Amino acid sequence: MSAAGAAVRTLAVLCPDWEVVAAGFEAADPRPVAVVRANRVVATNAAARADDVVVGARRREAQGRCPDLLIVAHDPARDARAFEPVVAALATLTPRVEITEPGVCSFATRGPSRYFGGDEALAQRAAAAAAGADPDLDVRVGVADGPLVARLAATRAGRGRPRVVPPGTAAAFLAPAPLAALATFVPDPDVLDTWERLGLTTIGEVGALPTGAVVARFGPAGQWVHRLARGLDPQLLRPEPVPPDVTVAADLDPPAERAEAVAFVARTLAEELVDRLGGWGLACTQVVVTAHTEHGETHERCWRLDGPARASGAPRSLAAAIADRARWQVDGWLSGPAAIRPTAGVSRLVLAPGSVEPARGRQLGFWGGEAGAGERVVRAVARLEGLVGPDAVRVAEARGGRRSGDEVGLVPTAAVDVSVARQVALTFGAAPWPGRLPAPSPSVVHRPARPAEVLDAEGRSVEVTGRGEVRRPPHTVRVEADPPHDVVAWAGPWPVDQRWWDAEAHERRARLQVVTDQGVALLLGRADGSWWVDAVYA
Amino acid sequence: MFDTRGVSPSPTRAEAAALAELDPRVRPLTLAAERTLPVLPALGALLPAGLPRGATLAVSGSAGRSFAVALLAAASRAGSWVAVVGMPGFGWRAAAEVGLDLARVVVVDPVPPAVVPECLGALVDGFDAVLLGAEARVPGTSARRLAARARERGTVLVAVVEPWFAGGRRERAGQGPLTDVADLRALVEGEGWDGLGSGFGRLGGRQVAVELEGRRLPGRRRRSRLWLPGPEGAVAPVEAPRLEVLGRHAAAPPVRSTA
Question: For B69, which residue in chain A has the nearest alpha carbon?
C-alpha cells in the first residue's frame, strides 16, 4: 500500500464548532453559545471564546464569565444526525468515507485524487460537495500525509480555501505548530506537558530530538508524537489483518421504521462483534455499519472508534460505542432530508470491523466484578434521578472545613461524570484547618444540630466563658425529649471562631466531647448561649 | 511448594499488605465459590472468606453504623460501588477514615416513602452494595422480595437498625423489617471509649464486641472484638484475631498448638 512507516495520504473535512452548529446555531452566530456535558463545557462558538469561555470550564464558571451565554446540552446523536448530509455528499466522491467523529470525516486520497486530477482539485471538489449539502455550512478541507496531519491542515484551511500539504512535507508543516495543538489526539497527553515544562514548545523541536533518546526517556507516548513530528504514521504497528468471519448481522422482522428499534438490535450485535474480535485478541478501531431496507437500499458508513471507549479498553464500553454509532447512523438516515431518506424500514443491520488493533483490554473476572460496574451504576443513577429527583442523588466531593461535615460536600450526580473514575482526594490530614478535631471522626453528623441541655451537678446549665473555659463540669446531658443521661467522661471545650468577615456564616462555637453512662460519645457544641448535639460517634 | 527464601527476601509487612489488597483486583478469574466482596483484614476473623455476594445483613447495636461502613470499605476500594440510602447525617470523614473510597459512593437522600421499594430495587440492580439506614423504611411486605432480588443480582444489602440518638427514632435492638429475612445478623455493641477523662484528653478509640450469626454460618455464631474506630479512625482487632465457635461445635476440645 505505502512505503514502510509512511503515512497514508488523506483528505480531512472538518466543520469547526460542530457541536454548536448541530445544535442549530450558525458558526458565526453573534450570540455566545456553549455546549455542556456533565456540567463541563465541551464546545463553544467564536462569540463565547471572545468572552473567555474555554472548553473544560464548569458551567457556572462559564456563565460567570459571560452572563448571556446560551447553554445547550450535549447530544452526540444530534451531532451525528446533522452531519449525515455532509457525509452523504462526500460519499459521491469516494465510497470509503470514514467518520472520525461527528463534524470530522476523512478518506484516503490515492484513488480519488488520480481520478479528479490531483489533491488540489479533489480538495476543491470535496469543499464544493460539502457546501452543496448545506450552503451556509462552514467547511474546512485539508489534505496531508496521514489522517491526523490532514485534520490539523484542515483547521488551518480557510472557508472555501483548502489547505494542501504536499507529500513528504508534513514535518515541515507541523514544525511551527505549538505542542498544545496535539493535546486532544495524543494517547497520553501528560508527555506534552512534560515537554512544555522542559522548554520544548513546538512540534518541530520535538521532531529534532534523537529517536533513541525520546524512546528511552518518554516511552511509547513520546515515540508516538516523535514519529508524527517527523512526518511518519504515528501508529507504531502495522495494521493487523482483519480476521475472517467476525462480521455480525441481524435481520429485523418487522423492519424498523425508527432508530430506537435498530439501537436495540445494534447493542446485541456490537457485543457479539466485540466478543468475536476478543476471541482473536483484537479490538476494532474502525467499524463499518451497513443498514439494508426492504426495498434494497443500503447505507454504509465507516466510523472511527476513538476516545475514552477505546482508551479504557473495557469490552463493554467499546460495544456501547459501536452500538451508539450504529444508532446515530440509522437515525441520520431515517430522519435525514428527503433526498437521502430510504423508502422503507431497516430490515437488516450488518456490523463489520474496518480495521483492528491488538486488544489492550484488561482481563476481567467471569462473574461481573469490576466489569461494567460503572455502567450499571450510570443506568441505576439515571433511573433513581427519575424516581426521587436529580437533586436527591448525589456524590461526595472533597471540600474543607473545621466543623464535622464541612470536609465533604455533596453534588448532584448530574453535575459529574460518574462513568469515569473520579478521585475524591481527601487530604484531611494535610489541609490547613487548624482547630479541626483530630481522628476519629463522628459517624453521624447532625445538620442542623439538635438542641440539647447540658447541666452541672446542681442542675444548672453549663456555661462556657469568653476565655473558652467551663466553670462547672458537665454532669448530665439531655437531648430533645430523651431522658437525661449522666456524663462519665468529657473533655474540652475547644473554641472555634470562624468566618468573621461574613455576617451570616460567622460562627463562634465551643465544642465538647462527652461520653454518657450508656457508652455513647457525643460531640456537643455551644453557640449563641445554647447547647447542641453536633454529631454522634455511633 | 518451593523454598524460595534463599532467592528473594520475604516481603515486608507493608508490602505484604499492599500485595494482599491488590490480589483480588488483579486476579483474572473468579470461581463461583469466590463470589465474595473483600473485607478489611481486621474483619477477617468474622468473615474469613469475605462478604458473600447477594447476602442481606442486618446490623444493630450502638456501633452498628460504623460497623456497616467498615464492612463495605475494602469492597469499595477494590472497585465496587456503594449506595447509601436513608442515612441522614452520614459521617463522610469517619467513613473515609475507616477506609471507604468516597469516589465510589452515591448517596440517595431524601427518598419519599412512597417510592422506597422501587428506589431500593433500582439500587440493588445497579450497585454492588447498598447501605440502608432506618430512614428508608422498607415495608414489611417487600422486605423478602428485596432480599431475593439482592441475592439474584449479587448485591450485598446492609440494613442498619439505627441506635440511640442516631436517627431520632428508637428501635429495639435487632428489630427492623429486613432483620427477619437477613442471611446474617450482626450485633455490634460499644464497650467503652478510650482517651477521654473528666475534663482532659480526647476521644481515642472504642472497643466493640461483634456477634455475627445467621443462615450462612449454620449452627454457629462468630464473635470478635474490634477497635471501631481505632485511634486514627481505622478498624483494628483488639488482640490477635481469634474465632470463637459456639453452639453445636462448642463441645469439641479446643485445639492447642504446641509451641
Answer: A443
* Segment 224-253 of chain B within 8 Å of chain A by CB: 229-233
Task: Say how far apart CA B89 and CA A535 lie, in whole Å.
Answer: 8
Distance (Å, whole) CA B38 – CA B43:
10
Strand duo A298-304 + A282-293: pairing: antiparallel
**Residue A30, SS3 per DSSP:** coil
Q: Which of B165, B199, B230 sits opposite A520 (nearest CB)?
A: B165
pTM: predicted TM-score of the whole model, two decimal places: 0.58
3-state secondary structure of A479: strand
Nearest to A393 among B81, B108, B192 (CB): B108
| pLDDT digit string (tens) for chain A, length 538 residues | 344 456 788 999 999 889 999 888 887 788 899 998 878 888 898 888 888 888 888 888 899 998 899 988 888 888 888 888 888 889 888 888 889 888 899 998 888 888 998 899 999 999 999 888 888 888 999 999 888 889 889 988 888 889 999 998 988 998 998 888 887 777 777 888 888 888 988 999 998 999 888 888 888 788 888 888 888 877 655 567 788 888 999 998 888 888 888 888 888 899 899 888 888 888 888 889 999 998 888 888 998 887 555 555 566 678 888 888 898 888 888 887 777 788 888 899 999 988 887 776 544 444 444 445 666 787 788 788 888 887 888 888 877 778 877 888 888 887 776 766 566 655 555 567 777 888 888 888 888 888 888 888 888 888 888 888 888 888 898 887 778 888 899 987 888 888 888 888 888 888 899 998 888 888 988 888 889 898 988 8
Alpha-carbon distance of A167 to A8, in angstroms, equals 10
Q: List the one residue out of B115, B59, B202 whose CA is nearest residue A442.
A: B202
Report the alpha-carbon distance of residue A222 to residue A191 in Å, rounded.
6
